[in-house]
Write a structure and sequence with these properties.
The protein has helices at 33-39, 45-76, 83-102, 108-129, 135-158, 167-176, 178-185, 193-213, 215-224, and strands at 6-8, 13-15, 30-31. The chain is mainly alpha-helical. Helix 3 runs antiparallel to helix 4 and helix 8 (193-213) crosses helix 9.
Length: 228
């Protein structure tokens, strides 16, 4: 909490209480100029957040109205393509960006991963809406995994003093990269080459960090999983 000091020009004293009049002579107090200059250095963050929340609600309402209209038009003029699902996915991705990436207090790496995965889901939705040719799962999905892995490496280099904090994300990416292999076994993915590359790269990144990191890496994993 910031206390703004006031000054009584009659009594020549400074008042720390939240009052507009001097407790001695009852004269109107004046704000101390030096204290005002100090407090004005800080922006009103709550006002900025309030504007962002209003904008998000306006965006949500406008998206709902527009998407309802697009669904109606897609139904009336249907030619074999559910293109309204694509616009709905785009609106949802925009809402996620506003709510999580902008307003949420999560870490930047968590935001990158969530945004990337939701982008993958959006691309898969587009592929299915256009008849599903498999390009989203064959190429875009593993490419997204590789992009996140490269981002983790960059962040580990930039934040070299706290590199071990990223090992849990590496483990998560390794497990996540197993999904395309499972889909290949179910004949949903037809070209597994890029998926295998993503899996191998994620596994090498995790194992390399765990082995080279030694005690710091193992301690971080134990701390994350609450193992003593």
């Amino acid at each position: 909490m910031v206390f703004i000091m006031s000054r009584c020009n009659q009594c020549k004293i400074e008042i720390l209480d939240a009052t507009d009049v001097c407790p001695l002579c009852k004269s109107v107090l004046e704000l101390d100029e030096d204290d005002f200059a100090h407090t004005s250095m800080y922006p009103d963050i709550r006002q900025k957040d309030h504007k962002l929340h209003i904008f998000m609600r306006i965006y949500l309402f406008a998206s709902f109205c527009i998407e309802a209209l697009l669904i109606y038009l897609n139904f009336i003029y249907f030619h074999g393509t559910y293109w309204a699902a694509i616009t709905g996915g785009i609106f949802a991705y925009g809402l996620l960006t506003l709510n999580y990436a902008v307003l949420h207090n999560a870490g930047y790496l968590a935001k990158i991963i969530v945004q990337t995965f939701c982008g993958m889901i959006l691309v898969v939705l587009i592929d299915f809406s256009l008849g599903f040719n498999g390009w989203s799962l064959n190429y875009v999905f593993p490419a997204g995994v590789l992009a996140v892995d490269v981002g983790i490496i960059i962040l580990m280099i930039v934040n070299s003093r706290n590199w071990q904090s990223y090992i849990l994300f590496q483990l998560f990416m390794t497990l996540w990269s197993l999904l395309p292999i499972f889909l290949y076994q179910k004949n949903i993915i037809t070209d597994p080459v890029l998926s295998i590359i993503a899996l191998v790269f994620s596994a090498i990144l995790f194992l390399g960090t765990f082995i080279i990191g030694g005690r710091r890496a193992s301690t971080e994993l134990k701390r994350r999983f609450h193992v003593r």
